[in-house]
Design brief:
- This protein is mainly alpha-helical and 91 residues long.
- It has one domain.
- 77% of the residues lie in helices and 4% in strands.
- The chain has a two-stranded antiparallel sheet with strand order 1-2.
- A hairpin with a 2-residue loop joins strand 1 and strand 2.
- It is elongated and about 65 Å long.
- It starts with a helix and ends in a 6-residue tail after the last helix.
- InterPro entries: Na_symporter_ssu (IPR019886).
- It comes from Rubrivivax gelatinosus (Rhodocyclus gelatinosus).
Length: 91
């Protein structure tokens, strides 16, 4: 017995939502590591990096760069998924 178009659409939406949650979870984990884990242990890594203490460099330069990379990854992946679904948008 074949499924109805409505049930197929609902299943596809559930699958897409699971994929989006998984991506968001991994990116939030990366954010947590950059924000808390690296900054917490940076004090113990007492060495100069590019002329400044490593802890300062992580807070002042590394974290914002990592946040931009996280946003960039999210945008690229979601754009590809939109293309796979044939969602309307920028071509």
């Amino acid at each position: 017995m074949s499924s109805t178009p409505r049930s197929r659409r609902a299943e596809r939406q559930r699958r897409d939502w699971r994929r989006n949650r998984r991506l968001t979870g991994w990116l939030l984990l990366a954010w947590f590591v950059v924000s808390f884990v690296v900054a917490f242990f940076a004090r113990e890594l007492d060495f100069d990096f590019l002329g400044a203490p490593f802890g300062f460099w992580v807070a002042a330069q590394g974290a914002p760069i990592a946040y931009l990379v996280i946003v960039w990854i999210y945008a690229i992946v979601m754009d590809r998924r939109d293309d796979e679904r044939g969602a309307p948008g920028d071509d």
